[in-house]
Amino acid sequence: MIPSNLQPLLEKVARLFTKDMPFMKPFSATTEIFNEEKVVLKFEMSEALIGNVHQKILHGGAISTMLDSVGGMVAMSAVFTHFPADTKEEQIKRLMKTCTINLNIHYLRPGRGKEGDHFIATAEVVRCGAKITVCDLKLEDQEGNLLAIGTGTYKNG
Fold it and tell me: Which CATH fold would you assign to the domain 4-155?
């Protein structure tokens, strides 16, 4: 369970990934679930995310961006709960050093959609160690069809 004193920090992380990070703005993502074990972000199909203009499907980079983002968010949250003795300042320092070490994505089917359709990106912690967190990642369309799966490995600051 996330200590209550760290909840405001997690809210800042969620806002960073869904509202403040310039690279993420075209996704207009919303946070559906954000805890120490799982993160779910929802985003709508948008012309800015299309990779194949003839078939109107999501760009592979948009898919990997969303999967890396949910993975990074859940890795940060897992660190908060696995290292509760850290002060808020130590947590912020660790958070600022968190980064992706490896991202492996398997594209299973095209991300088709029209304006108003949405997609769901999910990350779950496989293991959170002292230096590295490993996460399972998946992207589904609004009907629950699995579009991509992956594994993200993150340095714990």
Answer: Thiol Ester Dehydrase; Chain A (3.10.129)
